[in-house]
Amino acid sequence: MRLIFLGPPGAGKGTQAAIIAASFGVPHISTGEILRTHVGEETDLGQKAKDYMAQGELVPDQLILDMVEHRLEESDAQNGWILDGFPRNISQADFVAALILKVDREAKNSIGDLKVINLDVPDQILVERLLARGRKDDHEEVIRHRLQVYREQTAPLINYYLDRNQLQSINGNRSMDEITQELKQVVSA
Ligand code: ADP
Asked: Which of 146, 149, 150, 151 to mutate to test the pocket of ligand 1 (most atoms within 8 A of CB)?
């Protein structure tokens, strides 16, 4: 299984990615979570990423790509993975595509085609959910900026993956259970 969860902040990517990962036995790789751990542990990467995150900006690709490449090399990721919060722009998406090509060239058996799930949720609901969540970077002003960054840099990935026949959109404005049920069908199809 190779799955990417796409969608705006607050769409429920993290929650659903964790459920699907546990049920299919693959790691749930959240770049936001990895970054927050680095910030908490005050690593070199954490120090560099901290201000971008607090402002709702994307952390520079140069830092993120290295981090993801290393994570995908770990032993638990050799039979598949779910990426949550990555890719967030076209160059990150190109990077994943290249990585998959390289792994498939070297591998004996395939671990599956890439599927991209787009969780669709109206803006107004997103802001409500994020305000209710109350993470450190969940202030109204930063939330609005994160949504703007999403629209400008991440939303173009919807067409990117549509063009490649890899995208499946799912209505994320429903109960958690309903979404999980549909997701399970989509990923097993
Ligand atoms: P959200 O719930 O807003 O989608 P995440 O936990 O996915 O939050 O990400 C939190 C922050 O971490 C982002 O606002 C951004 O600063 C940084 N970040 C996470 N993933 C990436 C990425 N792939 N590229 C650049 N920055 C990232």
From this structure: 146
Pocket of ligand 1 (CB under 6 A): 9, 31-32, 35, 52-53, 56-59, 64, 85-86, 88, 92, 146
Backbone phi, psi, residue 119, to 5° = -90, 115
Tell me the CA–centroid distance for residue 150 and ligand 1, in Å: 10
Where are the extended beta strands (E) located within the chain? 2-6, 28-30, 81-84, 114-120, 167-171
* Average pLDDT along the chain, 189 residues, taken 10 residues at a time: 94 95 96 97 97 96 96 94 97 96 84 92 90 86 92 97 96 96 93
Distance 153 CA to ligand 1 centre (A): 12
Considering the entire predicted model, what is its pTM? 0.93
Whole-angstrom distance, CA of residue 22 vs CA of residue 19:
5
